[in-house]
Design goal:
Layout lengths: L1 H16 L43 E6 L1 H4 L6 H4 L1 H9 L2 E4 L7 H10 L10 E5 L3 H4 L6 H8 L10 H28 L4 E5 L12 E4 L2 E4 H18 L1 H4 L2 E3 L2 H6 L20 H14 L2
Parallel strand pairs: 1-2, 1-3, 3-4, 4-7
Antiparallel strand pairs: 5-6
Length: 291
């Protein structure tokens, strides 16, 4: 329950905290906004994907780093249904997954510094899914308030000034960590193509979920969109200087006709992680990004 509540909270806080980068406008039209040990997964029994992308072949070694999205959190069978395994099954390439649920940029840097990612030096493609937890971890102190908000017992407005500051610091920290992550990868493997995923908006349809803050009614859908844009801007703006390929996730998830995540607009499930169909689409998008 705490993981779910924290995820909703972090998106709201991120939007409020990063006011220097964007304005929260309650009239905004969400649809207009765009934005451990390695596991060999060659033998995963994943779902079949569309025909192979020209850039990805059975000769490739694909290594995944990141957080709970890449780790497959929220799936019934994480190892076989996550998109790294689907890629291994479809394209016949070697795939290794070093993703750890809950990791942020700092954690990934620590993992790389340990030097235990043995397959990194052999990779022809490196896939990154990291950054969202840089703002999530600032929210722990406010779990009780948002739990009371959900069950209707919250009293008064929420003063989140201190947490807003922590969230802003998390975004700023990610701006510093991102080039360090790329440099750490390049120190071990200077030649692999690095693919950096952007972030989708898990709460685009949560327009009925609102909180009063400083005289404004904040929709979780609106602040979620603003939060995602803030994180994606960091990733997209760093591509040229750091020499990686951006895998754009936001728009395909927004335009997909169907449900790609576990969260449901009625609030019965607010888990923001991709479901089985979401991982199929992630597999397609990553494969298409390979050059």
């Amino acid at each position: 329950m705490k993981r779910i509540v924290l995820t909703v909270l972090c998106l709201a806080l991120c939007a409020l905290a990063a006011g220097c980068e964007f304005d929260i406008n309650m009239s905004v039209d969400i649809d207009e906004q765009s934005l451990p040990a390695a596991e060999s997964e060659n033998e995963s029994a994943g779902e079949s994907l569309p025909p192979q992308a020209d850039g990805l072949t059975s000769d490739d070694v694909v290594v995944f780093f990141g957080d709970s999205i890449a780790a497959g959190y929220g799936l019934a069978d994480e190892e076989n249904e996550r998109y790294s395994s689907l890629i291994a099954t479809e394209y016949g390439c070697e795939v290794y997954n070093y993703a750890v649920s809950g990791d942020d940029g700092k954690d990934l840097l620590a993992l790389l510094a340990e030097g235990n990612c043995e397959q990194l030096e052999n990779a022809t493609v490196i896939v990154l899914s990291i950054g969202a937890n840089n703002v999530l971890k600032a929210a722990y102190a406010l779990v009780p308030y948002f739990e009371s908000l959900q069950n209707g017992t919250a009293q008064g407005n929420l003063d989140i000034t201190e947490v807003m500051s922590e969230v802003a610091q998390g975004i700023d920290r990610f701006k510093t960590e991102l080039p360090q992550i790329i440099a750490s990868l390049r120190a071990v493997n200077p030649d692999a193509q690095i693919i950096f995923q952007t972030v989708y908006n898990p709460y685009r349809d949560f327009t009925e979920f609102k909180v009063e803050q400083n005289g404004f009614t904040l929709s979780f859908a609106a602040v979620s969109a603003s939060s995602v844009i803030s994180l994606n801007d960091v990733i997209e703006n760093g591509a040229e200087a750091n020499g990686y390929t951006v895998c754009e996730i936001y728009t395909p998830f927004k335009e997909y006709q169907g449900n790609l995540i576990n969260a449901l607009p009625d609030g019965s499930n607010v888990d923001p992680h991709p479901n089985k169909e979401g991982h199929k689409l992630l597999a397609e998008l990553v494969a298409d990004a390979v050059k």
